[in-house]
Design brief:
It contains twelve helices and 14 strands. Strand 4, helix 4 and strand 5 form a beta-alpha-beta unit. It has 344 residues and is of the alpha/beta class. The radius of gyration is 20 Å and the shape is globular. It is 30% helix and 21% strand. The protein folds into two domains: 159 residues, Rossmann fold, CATH 3.40.50; 163 residues, Dihydrodipicolinate Reductase, domain 2 (2-Layer Sandwich). The strands form two sheets. The chain has a seven-stranded parallel β-sheet, sandwiched between helices. A seven-stranded mixed β-sheet has the order 9-10-8-11-14-13-12.
Length: 344
């Protein structure tokens, strides 16, 4: 059995890792940690786990010592030293934060206000969005797990951009997220009276996921891509719906695009390309590692529209991290992740 440790287990992504790994057939949780709740059982923080997982939160050092693979569900700026220690010990480190996602240190400085502690460690890390960069993941020990918007938007657009069917200028990603994406910490914007029965955009054209999305799309295109990214906050717990717009190149038909998407995702279990007439809906992927994609062409305006739906806590965080663990350890990617979304 693979021994897994979770650092930051009482945050939303960490708690989701506890839920998923508790049922993984090839992995057992060896230790968990939490700065805020050290000495308390995870079931005291999340009573849903009572009697199912009553592990007590230890310190981070104990987690590293007891584990083969360490998941870090921490805010940016807190993972680099942990990653270095794990690398020196020959252990797998999967970072759900942003410290290893950006290839360009200048981007990290600009968007996160930090710097790279060990540039060589960053060069040896891998950005691990499996459906797009699977071949780069195996054999790596420092894994950058993509964020939520940065999973939903690229999976919506990848076949269109990689196939050269759309113009690279003027791409727009209009996204809506459940409030768990803001984390467990309390803010005025996630306070119930402010959030309930409301719906608003935030960090318009200034969200930290922008350079990460552009980095992925640029790799797919083979040249620099910039886009306009506008996130919105929905008064729901989970889910991200990404509606992406791009201008069609002259002569491109909806039949060509449908064929390209079918071919691109034909072997991807976790990406469900929906048939014509069915629209991606966050209701249908809740608690699962699926990404549903629906595509459209507006011939009147020569616009391509791709919509994706993911659970931001699963495919957008913990589920994808476990998917990456499965790849690193040579397991079936679906192992421990074959959740059927609830029908209602």
């Amino acid at each position: 059995m693979i021994k897994a440790g979770i650092i930051g287990a009482t945050g939303y992504a960490g708690a989701e890792l506890v839920r998923i790994l508790s049922g993984h057939p090839e992995c057992e949780i060896a230790a968990i940690s939490s700065v805020s709740f050290e000495g308390k059982a995870i079931s005291e923080v999340y009573p849903a786990y009572y009697g199912l997982n009553d592990m007590v939160c230890e310190d981070a050092d104990s987690v590293v010592e007891k584990s083969d693979v360490i998941f870090a569900a921490l805010p940016h700026g807190l993972s680099q030293e942990l990653a270095q220690r794990c690398f020196d010990l020959g252990k797998i480190f999967i970072d759900l934060g942003a410290d290893f996602r950006l290839e360009n240190e200048d981007d990290y400085k600009q968007w996160y206000g930090g710097s790279y502690v060990n540039k060589e460690l960053h060069q040896n890390s891998v950005y691990a969005l499996p459906e797009l960069f699977r071949k780069n993941i195996a054999g790596k020990k420092t894994i950058a797990n993509p964020g939520c918007y940065t999973t939903g938007v690229p999976l919506a657009l990848a076949p269109a951009i990689a196939g050269g069917f759309v113009e690279l200028k003027g791409i727009i990603a209009d996204c809506k997220s459940g409030v768990t994406g803001s984390g467990r910490g309390l803010t005025q914007g996630t306070h119930y009276p402010d959030l309930n029965e409301g719906f608003h955009a935030y960090k318009v054209a200034a969200h930290r996921h922008t350079p990460e999305i552009e980095q992925t799309l640029s790799h797919l295109a083979g040249q620099k891509v910039k886009l306009t990214f506008v996130p919105h906050l929905l008064p729901i717990n989970r889910g991200i719906l990404s509606t992406c717009y791009a201008r069609l190149k002259p002569g491109v038909t909806k039949e060509q695009l449908r064929k390209a998407y079918e071919e691109f995702y034909k072997d991807e279990y976790f990406v469900r390309l929906l048939p014509e007439g069915m629209t991606a809906d966050i209701h249908n992927i809740k608690y699962s590692n699926f990404c549903d994609v629906s595509i459209y062409t507006d011939e009147r305006t020569s616009t391509f529209i791709a919509i994706s739906a993911i659970d931001n806590m699963v495919k957008g965080a913990a589920g994808q991290a476990v998917q990456n663990m499965n790849i690193v350890f040579g397991l079936d990617e679906k192992c421990g992740l074959e959740f059927i979304p609830p029908a209602f």
